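Here is the promised in-class demo. Please do not try to memorize the tokens; focus on the logic of going from shape to residues.
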């Protein structure tokens, strides 16, 4: 986790907690106030990619909130952008990976628009149980790319996602 500079502390303070959304017992972290503040958003994007600068060619963002940070990170780092989408959202998926949900199975897909061996930094807003990010790592590998690491805005440690993901290069900006 990076040093909490005044800009990052301010950015973290903009994340609102919403009880019982999207269902009873869930504490949702609303990042839209952070996104609305240009300085906070920039500080957050810079903190997401700082440990990885020079080690990636592509930034992959996971649907949906991961897209917001990944696109800004790719632009900032002069890297390509890869959307990792839920099943059925891409017109020509090149690869797909299933992963388990609490009540079933889901799938992520991506295109193969980059040269084999491209180094990919995966970005999402939150690491919870780790299933989606672990599937994204498998997807990157299946496409012939190399994972340069994983960056998330925050981690909910009690849900065990770090163990599921098993990425020694996992980087979180804020405590969950």
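The designed amino acids, position by position:
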């Amino acid at each position: 986790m990076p040093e909490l500079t005044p800009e990052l502390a301010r950015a973290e303070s903009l994340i609102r907690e919403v009880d019982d959304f999207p269902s009873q017992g869930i504490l949702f972290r609303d990042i839209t106030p952070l996104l609305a503040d240009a300085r906070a958003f920039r500080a957050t994007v810079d903190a997401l990619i700082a440990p990885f600068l020079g080690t990636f060619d592509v930034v992959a963002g996971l649907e949906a909130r991961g897209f917001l940070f990944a696109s800004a990170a790719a632009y900032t780092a002069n890297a390509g952008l890869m959307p990792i989408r839920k099943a059925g959202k891409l017109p020509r998926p090149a690869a797909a990976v299933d992963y388990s949900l609490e009540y079933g199975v889901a799938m992520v897909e991506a295109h193969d628009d980059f040269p084999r061996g491209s180094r990919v930094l995966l970005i999402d807003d939150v690491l919870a149980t780790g299933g989606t990010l672990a599937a994204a790592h498998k997807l990157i590998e299946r496409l012939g790319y190399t994972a340069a690491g994983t960056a998330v805005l925050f981690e909910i440690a009690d849900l065990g996602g770090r163990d599921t993901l098993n990425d020694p290069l996992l980087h979180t900006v804020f405590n969950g």
